[in-house]
Amino acid sequence: MNTSDPVAGLDRRERGNIVVVGSANMDLVVHAARLPTSGETLLGGGFETCPGGKGANQAIAAARLGASVAMVGCVGDDAFGATLLNGLASDRIDTAHMQRLKAVPSGIAMITVAADGANTIVVAPGANVRLTPELVDAAADLIANAGMLVCQLEVPVDAVRRAVDVAVRHGTAVLLNPAPAQPLPDDLYAQVDFLIVNETEAQALTGIAVSDIAAAREAADALRRKGARTVIVTLGAGGVWYSGPEGESHMTAPRVDAVDTTGAGDTFAGGFAAARVRGAGLSDAIAFAQRAAALSVMKKGAQSSIPMRAEVDAHLPAA
Fold this sequence. Notes:
alpha/beta; UDP-N-acetylmuramoyl-L-alanine:D-glutamate ligase; 4-stranded mixed beta sheet; 11 helices
């Protein structure tokens, strides 16, 4: 972790360059009037396949929201894999370090979306679990010369740790979205410049039920004590609580009519990263990310809903 502001000011690197180490999945989406209860068979409505995966979603969000982006990860040598790579390339994301593995299925996510926009997601990681520290090492120069490294936990933690180690050695800022949440060693927290968690992830990592702003503050403080430099707790329609060296505050969320919340958190993470590497201060970067996420929930799909930077600037005022 850097001891000074990890992205502000002049630097030898070209700012705007983001490397995402993470997952790419094909989302299999069923729409229903509501989410099923345990053991219930529920008749749904429309079905669609949509490119997704937290890594790919965040990469595409960062690219559409103003950054130059490269991605490191794995897909299968199947039709889903080809579609996923083509989707990344169509957003001008560098896929030179996306491995296409033979005889391995691409990752998939089974998603149910209710009429009110709520969703449930179950992921079969497929090729994503084949991302190794050695494959990350092959992209070390890319990470070393980036403005920010962005990681999640849908790929093996060993690969994430290797990427973070490379970033820290070379002064590259580290953003970690620990999703799906799992126990993490304190030495990894101590390498993270920006830790972005939602209520569920914050509770899983701290044991604190994040039901309001006070609880979000308590969880953020606990995560900072573990070593994370700046913690951002996203609260959906309840806004964002952040805490770090630049201060702490609650920021309200833009009011919109949600259609599908799938990918909103990824849009937030990618938008925040894109804003930070172009020099935005912490609160301005959060506000930009909130506006991007608000626009995304007004459309269906994880990636198809991610807005372009011009849309964010034009359609929603600052939070």
